[in-house]
């Protein structure tokens, strides 16, 4: 009897704390079989708005306060796409920076006025601890992000 | 055994079983309630250095990355790089992010490290483990339900007092009033 109890306890602990050393998943399991290039999305983003997409790339930044977004590098230089989730829905670790992630989400389009851009950049600067000068914003802008459904980050 | 004694024993024993998780959930709850003021999971160690400014703008070659790492006394190896713009370079190496700003020569080092204790508490509270932990958390939730229901029947000396009713009504109103105000 005691032996059985011991075996069950060990199995429970293994089930509880075992996790893949190579990948950690967040949110819903990935469902799409094809990955779309981020650069292809950014080349003609309007044609992808509202579509569920899977993208893969290097995580270059993570929300420092809530872990509620990741920026993923595109294939072409100087391009990145933000993967955003509701606060607490998924919490991405700061240690994801520099790792490769495969994520799925719905592409959203935001048209911001100059005031909106200043408010957004101020908030972003607070989250990342970066400095931001509102005088550098001269006009409104349009930006795109993936509304996150699920993600897998490798080698976490 | 009378109902009163059975209820008392049940309340006491469930209380013992729930103590660990209750403390974890409560402490982590306070921590994540104040996310605007601090990151309860990670500390960010930052430091700054400078190298000679560069007039180069554009895609940085691998040889240039290695040269820049040598300039700051780092080993000439890295895991990944990214350029957010033609003037900047991010190098990911050994869990650190090293950011070079070419026009100014400013180099920022950043390392995110797990907060001792807090990261583990939040890991449990926010169910990052998933797997069997989800079921244990459900069992714990059932335990809390039983704890509150058996608590209702813990009448002082077995007699109903007005105080019991008043405190119970206050306990119910505490979540309802914010819902009426903010929801």
CA-based gyration radius of chain B = 28 Å
Largest sheet of chain B: 5 strands, antiparallel
Helix and strand sequence of chain A: HEHEEEEHE
Which strand order does the major sheet of chain A show?
Answer: 2-3-4-6-5
Sum up the overall morphology of chain B in one term. elongated
- Give me the number of helical elements of chain B: 5
Strand content of the residues of chain B, in percent? 15-25%
Our count of helices of chain A gives 3
Radius of gyration of chain A: 19 Å
Low-confidence regions of chain B = none
Helicity level of chain B: 40-55%
The arrangement of helices and strands of chain B along the chain is: HEHEEEEHHH
The first-to-last residue Cα distance of chain B is: 45 Å
- The pLDDT mean of chain A sits at 88
Structural class of chain A: alpha+beta
What's the mean pLDDT score of chain B?
Answer: 92
Determine the N-to-C terminus distance of chain A: 39 Å
Biggest sheet layout of chain A: 5 strands, mixed, barrel
């Amino acid at each position: 009897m005691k032996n059985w109890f011991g075996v069950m306890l060990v199995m429970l602990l293994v089930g509880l704390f075992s996790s893949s050393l190579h990948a950690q998943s967040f949110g819903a399991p990935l469902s799409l079989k094809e990955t779309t290039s981020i650069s292809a999305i950014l080349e003609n983003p309007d044609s992808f708005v509202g579509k569920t997409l899977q993208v893969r790339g290097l995580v270059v930044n993570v929300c420092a306060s809530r872990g509620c977004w990741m920026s993923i590098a595109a294939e072409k230089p100087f391009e990145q796409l933000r993967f955003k989730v509701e606060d607490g829905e998924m919490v991405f670790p700061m240690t994801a920076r520099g790792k490769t992630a495969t994520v799925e989400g719905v592409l959203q389009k935001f048209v911001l006025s100059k005031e909106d851009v200043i408010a957004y950049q101020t908030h972003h600067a607070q989250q990342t601890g970066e400095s931001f000068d509102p005088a550098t914003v001269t006009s409104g802008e349009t930006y795109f992000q993936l509304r996150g459904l699920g993600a897998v980050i490798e080698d976490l | 055994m009378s109902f009163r004694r059975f209820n008392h024993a049940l309340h006491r024993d469930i209380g013992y079983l729930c103590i660990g998780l209750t403390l974890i959930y409560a402490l982590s709850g306070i921590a994540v309630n104040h996310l605007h003021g601090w990151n309860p999971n990670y500390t960010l160690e930052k430091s700054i250095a400078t190298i000679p400014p560069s007039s180069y703008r554009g895609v940085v070659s691998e040889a240039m990355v290695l040269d820049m790492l040598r300039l700051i006394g780092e080993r000439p190896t890295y895991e990944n790089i990214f350029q957010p713009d033609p003037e900047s370079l991010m190098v990911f190496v050994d869990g650190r992010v090293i950011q070079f700003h070419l026009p100014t020569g400013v180099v920022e080092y950043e390392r995110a490290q797990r907060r001792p204790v807090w990261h583990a508490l939040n890991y449990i509270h926010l169910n990052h483990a998933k797997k069997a932990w989800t079921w244990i958390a459900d069992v714990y939730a059932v335990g809390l339900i039983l704890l509150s229901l058996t608590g209702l029947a813990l009448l002082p000396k077995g007699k109903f007092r007005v105080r019991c009713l008043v405190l119970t009504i206050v306990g119910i109103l505490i979540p309802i009033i914010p819902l009426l105000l903010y929801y």
